[in-house]
Each structure stands twice: as structure tokens, then as C-alpha cells.
Design brief:
Layout lengths: L1 H13 L1 H24 L8 H34 L2 H7 L3 H38 L7 H29 L2 H22 L1 H4 L7 H8 L10 H25 L4
Length: about 250
Amino acid sequence: MTAQLRAELLKQRSTRTNLSLLSAMLGLVLLAVLLHGLALPAEHLDSTSEQLTVVVGWGEKLGALFAALLGAMSITSEIRHGTIRPTFLVTPRRARVLAAKVLASMFFGAGFGLIATAVAAGGGSAALEIRGIENQLDASAYSLFLAGGAGAAALWAAIGVGIGAVVRNQVPALIGICAWLLFIEGLLVGDLVGAVGDVGRFLPGAAAAAISGQDPDKLVAPAFGFLLLALYTVAVALAGSLATARRDVA
């Protein structure tokens, strides 16, 4: 298992696509944070919850998204190019290969989340200062945001591996992840929440936001959000392991 994990970490470090993902993530985080911080009316940015959720919260959202994409690509790229076959020949126990991919993706996903939230925190603070709006976020809020963003991204990276193992085809897997986090869950938590009750706050994207302390009046507590997202992660990873064990890799 140790050798397999080292191999997966090397793959992640040497894959140039991951650097492209990181660059795209940083650009989108800065764009989203600055647009919201500089363009929204000042009365919508004068509380701790609003500043954390509306401005800097984009760091967590995009960090989790790109971590999930990284996780999904770590397995779908190998399936797409056929390099998964020699991997399984060297390590016939497919569950062990998938576990190594999950751990490696979680490590790099946590890095994505930490970088995204740090950039969002810096950009958001700068935007508020430029507009002369008092920053209501203290050291404890920033600490929870950074740690929660890293933890949420790590778990979403593992979910991405599981989704990639189940779907196998790279394009539908990546589109599905983007659609869920950027559109579908937003509708369920926001526009349709009156129709479906409070179930939206128990969805995986909302749980990730809760871990970093966002929107405490609507979302669950950070500790419960972490537990909830961890359960989603275990369920999706197990589904991916079963799918990998039962299917051919050709």
C-alpha cells in the first residue's frame, strides 16, 4: 500500500493538468471574490455572515469544486488513456489502487482548498478595505474558514475519485460534478428550499460550506457538516470501489 501511495503521489505531482487546474482555480477565485466584494451594495456586506458567505466564501466553493475535478481526473484520465491497465497488473487488488488514489487526491485536494481560501481571504479583505467597509471577520473566523476549506476540499477530492470510478468516462464525470456544485444544489438549497424543506442543508455542497463556518443561520454546525460530508465520502468511495472491482478496465 505504501508503494502504491507513493506512485499515486508521484502521478499527481508530475501531471501538468493539475497545474492548469490550480491556475484556473486561482483566477476564478480572485475574479469571484473581487466582483462580489467590489460590486455588491455596502449594506449587503456589513455583517460577519455576509462577508464570509458572499465574499470570501467563494474560496471554499471553488476550492472544493476543483479538488473534486482533480480527484475525478486522477482515475478517469488513466481509464481514458489505458494506463490504468498496467497499474492493475502491478497491483491486482483494485480496491488498494483506488484507496491510494483517494488518499493522494485528498492530500492534493486539501492543498487546493487551503490555497483557494487563503487567496479568497486576502482578496476579500483587500476589496473591503478599498471600499472602506469595516472587516467583521476576526482571526477565529479566518482560521475556521481556512481549515474548513482545506478539509472540505480534501473530502470532495475523494468524492471525485469515487464518481470517476463509477462513471469512468471523463467528460460526463466532470460535467456532472460542475453541474451539481454550481447549479443543481444551489437550486435545491436556494430557490427550491421552500418546496423541499430543510433537506438542502444536508446535501454535500452545503455540508462543505458549513465546515468553513459559512451561513450559520441556514447551514448545519461545522462539526456536523464535517461528519456529514465524511459519510458522503465513504459512501461514494465504496461505490467506486465496488464498480472498479466488477468492471473490466479495457
